[in-house]
Design brief:
The protein is built from 1 helix and 18 strands. The chain is mostly beta strands. It is elongated, with a radius of gyration of 30 Å.
């Protein structure tokens, strides 16, 4: 009887050892991915409700053991979102879709990081994470900034080689929000060559909602040439809510 009991226990031990070995082998092959579907990196506004959609996957169809989605301030690290409440989801299909919504009750002109993370049975085993960044503007009507440019000077009258022109352009946001970036360029209409590009730092960050650009330029250019003065204003991210305006003039010989 003792002989059979020993054989039985030995068999159970061997099966358990083999199962652990197989599990270790599968773990070695684990490849997780995390894809943030929503939100995107576009600027948002205080009070906006954002959809949070993140897909987690184990490429070999293995178990998704743990997932986590956080939103933290890119400025000071403050955390405003951390889900799911229980990170151990143990999804054996190899795919886990995280879905939620959040109202952005945050400070205006703030920057945020949404960080997704997936990992295995043990802490940080095969961990993979993904991050997106977005900016939050003040809550105002119209769905975002309403930028505008206005040329005061120069005008479209013909000019002469050697003339000194005043460059006066007002940039504004009709919603009173921050003027993040501005740029003023003077380019040759015929060949696109550029002779003026200011300010040196485009990021002016004028929170009053109005920015006055003032400068002077001597027209040391070729005679009988046509020129385009191009004014551009945009938001925190490249091209966000961008507005541009162009003024054209001709330059005669001195």
């Amino acid at each position: 009887m003792k002989k059979y009991l020993f054989i039985f226990l030995l068999t159970i031990a061997i099966i358990g050892f083999q199962a652990c070995s197989d599990d270790d082998m599968n773990t070695m092959d684990t490849v997780y991915t995390s894809q943030i579907i929503s939100p995107n990196t576009d600027d948002k506004m205080v009070g906006d409700k954002i959809s949070i959609a993140v897909d987690f996957e184990e490429q070999g169809g293995g178990t998704i053991h743990h997932v986590n989605v956080r939103i933290v301030s890119a400025d000071d690290g403050t955390e405003i979102y951390n889900k799911p409440d229980e990170a151990h989801v143990h999804e054996e299909s190899g795919k886990y879709e995280f879905r939620d919504e959040l109202t952005l009750d945050v400070a205006d002109h703030s920057n945020w990081l949404l960080i997704s993370k997936v990992w295995g049975h043990q802490a940080d085993a095969h961990a993979v994470s993904d991050t997106i960044r977005f900016h939050v503007h003040p809550a105002m009507g119209g769905g975002g900034p309403a930028y505008h440019t206005h040329f005061h000077s120069p005008n479209t009258d013909d000019k002469k080689v050697g003339d000194k022109i005043d460059i006066a352009i007002d940039f504004s946001d009709h919603h009173g929000g921050t003027i993040h970036h501005v740029n003023v360029r003077l380019v040759n209409k015929a060949d696109g060559s550029e002779i003026y590009n200011k300010p040196d730092a485009a990021h002016v960050h004028e929170e009053s909602g109005k920015y006055e650009f003032r400068d002077e330029l001597d027209l040391n250019v070729g005679a009988h040439s046509d020129w385009l003065l191009i004014a551009k204003v945009w938001g925190h991210e490249a091209g966000a809510h961008q507005v541009s305006d162009t003024l054209e003039f001709h330059v005669h010989p001195q």
